Amino acid sequence: MIFLGDIPPPLHGMSAINKKMLELLRKQGSVTFINSSPSLLARYYHSQFWFLIKVIFFFPVTARLFYALTVKRERVLYRSLNGGHGQVFDLCWVTLARLLGAKIFLHHHAALYLTCPSRLFAKICKTAGSSTRHIVLGEAMRLALKENYKISDDKISVLSNAAFFSNNNIKIPKAINSALRIGYLANISFSKGIDVFLETLAQLKQIGVPFQAVIAGPCHDPELKSLLDDARIKFPELRYLGGIYGNDKIRFFADLDCFIYPSRNEAEPLVIYEAAVEGVYILSSEAGCMKASTQRLQGWSTPLKSGELWAKAAASHISSSTLATSDTSRQSRKKIFQTFISEAHADLDSLIKEITYAKA
Predict the structure, then answer these.
(1) Please, are residues 342 and 167 in contact by the beta-carbon 8 Å criterion?
(2) How many CB atoms lie under 10 A from the CB of residue 320?
(3) Which of 200, 243, 276, 323 could be 337's S-S partner, Cβ–Cβ 3.0 to 4.6 Å?
(4) Which strands make up the sheet holding 238-240, listed edge to edge?
């Protein structure tokens, strides 16, 4: 089989899941891996040159795919789809695979082109054919794929990103704080709701809720860097850590009471589940599959139609609830996520077997 996908570097949610999926498939048998990300040039990720680099890289990737389908006679293609304009590449690769008789698996890691009908993705669906297996992250994405692109239920598999978490996590004691400890972690952008998070801090301060706040994640936008600098002056309680990884990230979540993630554009973000591992109380928007994920984890989720209104509602909820600071509630959330992981592992095992034994 052919595994065509982005793996780190650069590191982001989809590439992290791709790497784990590739490792699992390799345990089952021979895999022809084609990295569709120009990893050697990852330092240009988030720069104005990145899309141009990907355009140039498209040609050697396509040549490798053609070789795998013709000379190696591979007959199964697994592809994690791009979002946005990057789907032009996907359309070409899917067309090539279909013309050469491959069975196709498409793994969707973005929700926007599913919930907002896209002509480009509609062409990909038509080209891939009715036998293609579509893998989505949650029920909201399944319904969107079914309703907007007329994909039948029996060709859609739901696989939560929770499947890539383990129940055997290191237990880290939570730091003791007198004030509510609030966190936000992302590749910082307006799309990920950093402005709404800062507005939530302003609302909490206005109604007199004592807190300590911490922001983590890389920031590449000069405008956002200025926004963060201004916020640290406005809120003495706020710290910015920059990018954090490994044990530092585990420690980050272990010390939180609340994780606030008011993203405008999501599918099923890994950070929600990284917080859930530690039983942190989650407040999120309803983008993508976040409503179902957050509510299942006993968190709070509401639509993000106005940043100010969302922030007011979140601050009001925090001030009137003890769920974030109750240790009993925290332990309950941990157990709920452990059950969720076990269910997702069963879905993953089933999917891995289907891909491994698929035939064109």
Answers:
(1) yes
(2) 9
(3) 276
(4) 238-240, 211-216, 180-185, 258-261, 281-284, 300-301
Angstrom distance (rounded) from CA 204 to CA 139: 33
Confidence of residue 20 (pLDDT cuts 50, 70, 90): very high
Q: What is the dihedral of CA 260, 226, 243, 285, to 10 degrees?
A: 20
Secondary structure (H, E, C), 83-103: CHHHHHHHHHHHHHHHHCCCE
pLDDT digits (tens, 9 = 90+) for 256-301: 999 999 999 999 999 999 999 999 999 999 999 999 999 999 999 9
Residue ranges with strand state E in the chain: 2-5, 32-35, 76-80, 103-107, 133-136, 156-158, 180-185, 211-216, 238-240, 258-261, 281-284, 300-301
Cα–Cα nearest to 109, from 133, 139, 144, 136:
136
| C-alpha to C-alpha distances, 130 to 98, 105, 106, 155, 156, nearest whole angstrom | 11, 11, 12, 8, 11
Taking only the tens place, the pLDDT of each residue in 78-88 is 999 998 899 99
Place of tokens 């789809």: 81
d(CA 344, CA 342): 5
87's tokens: 């789907």
d(CA 247, CA 311): 30
